[in-house]
Amino acid sequence: MSRSLNKATLIGNVGQEPEIRTTTNGGRVATFSLATSRSWAGQGGEKQEKTEWHRCVAWNAGRATGAGDKGMGLADVVEKYVKKGDKVYVEGAIEYRQWQDKENQTRYTTEIRVRELIMLSGRAGGGDFDGDSQPSRASRPAASGRAAGNSSTAGEFEDFPAALADEDDDLPF
């Protein structure tokens, strides 16, 4: 079986305030630009720098839009916490799209469809955001059970303590 991977991992600064839209079926989407830079010494020793701009798109995919929905999707997190100039970690898939504009010209765009977002900028006294040194983490609903900044899975087995103590696990090593 052949496998493939479409994964982009970026750390950069948000270039402008995110744009939040609501689709016709009630879904929410946030778009923002992310700048990544690299620098190097040129042939004469002078410092060179290049900035790449990435269009990032975060959806509230898989979330109910009813009033009883207490969870936050990625678009909601972007709307509430991400501001121009913030440093963020973005993980997602590269998508290429094309469409016809008003003059019937074919337009192309490359986007990062965000699956995970981690705030790297601290913010002192900023609304509901706790400005401690731990980065805030948001991801799609299936991965939202992971604790921010904690990769330990011990808490996931609290309901099944026998699973940790079981010596007979049928592993060949």
Structural commentary:
The chain has 173 residues and is mainly beta. The chain contains 2 helices and 7 strands, in the order ββββαβββα. It has one domain: OB fold (Dihydrolipoamide Acetyltransferase, E2P) (Beta Barrel). It has a 5-stranded mixed barrel with strand order 1-3-4-6-5. A hairpin with a 5-residue loop joins β5 (87-100) and β6. The model is unreliable at 63-68, 124-134 and 140-155 (pLDDT under 50).
Assign the CATH class. Answer: Mainly Beta
* CATH architecture type: Beta Barrel
Low-confidence stretches: 63-68, 124-134, 140-155
What is the helix fraction of residues, given as a range? under 10%
- How many separate domains make up the residues? 1
Per DSSP E runs of 2 or more residues, the count of β-strands stands at 7
- Element order, helices and strands? EEEEHEEEH
- What does the main sheet amount to? 5 strands, mixed, barrel
Overall average pLDDT: 78
The percent range for strand residues is 35-45%
Radius of gyration: 20 Å
The CATH topology is: OB fold (Dihydrolipoamide Acetyltransferase, E2P)
The CATH homologous superfamily is called Nucleic acid-binding proteins
User: Which structural class do you get from the secondary structure elements?
Assistant: mainly beta
Shape: globular
Distance between the termini: 25 Å
Query: How do the strands line up in the largest sheet?
Result: 1-3-4-6-5
Q: Note the total helix count.
A: 2
